[in-house]
Give the backbone structure.
Amino acid sequence: MKTLSLVVPCRNEFRRMRAGEFLEAVERWPWLSFCFVDDGSTDATAERLEWLSNASPSMHAINLPKRVGKAGAVRAGIRHLCEHSHADLIGFWDADLATPLAEIPRFVEPFEAQKGLSAVIGSRWPHLGADIKRSSHRGLASAAVRMLIRRVLKVPVWDTQCGAKVFAREVAAEVFARAFRTRWLFDVEILARLGCDRLRSHVIELPLKSWFDVPGSKLGLGSFASILRELAVVSFKTGNM
C-alpha cells in the first residue's frame, strides 16, 4: 500500500473533533498519517491537537500564529509535508469528518491500480446505494454553487468542493506552490492548476459511499456574493492560477 499523509485544517474544532477516530485510523492503517493545522483557533483546539500529536507518532500538529483561512491552512500543511514527509501521497480531509475516515482506503486504491495518476477527489454525488445526507438549506446552496461553477468555468467535475482530496506527492508540491487567490473557491483553483487535460485523463472523481452534513458549516446562501466575485478571479483557460 502506498503511504498517505493527510492535512486536517482546524479552526475552533474542539467541540466537533472526534479525536478517537483519528487514532483508530492510524492504528488500523499503518501507511496513514495526519498533519493537523491549527488556523489560529480561539478555543481549546490547540491543546487537543497537542494531545493527538503526543498520542501517536503518526500524528503531527502545526500551530499557525494567526488565522489564514482554510485555503492558507491547507497549503501550509501540504507544503510542510512536501518538505518533511516521505509519504507517496499527500492530501487533505475535513476535521469534522463529514467524509468518514472509512473512505480513506478507497482514495488510495486508484493510485495502486493506475500508473501516473495525479489526484483522486471526493464527490458527494447521490448515486444509488450512497448514504449522502445534507440539510435542506445546505443542499440548495451547494447545488447552486455547482451549477454556477459548471456553467461559468466549464469544469469537467461534478463536485469541486468536497473536502476530501488526495494527490501524488509531486503533484501536490506543484499545485500548492503558490498562495491561493480565493477563499470559497480554492478547490476550483486547485482544479485550474491541474488543467483540463490532466483532469480528463489523470484525475479520478470518486463518488463517496457516505457523507454527512455536520452542523457548524459556514457555507450557505449568504456566501453567494463572495462566490460570484471569486468566480471572476479563477481563470480556467490558462491553468496558471
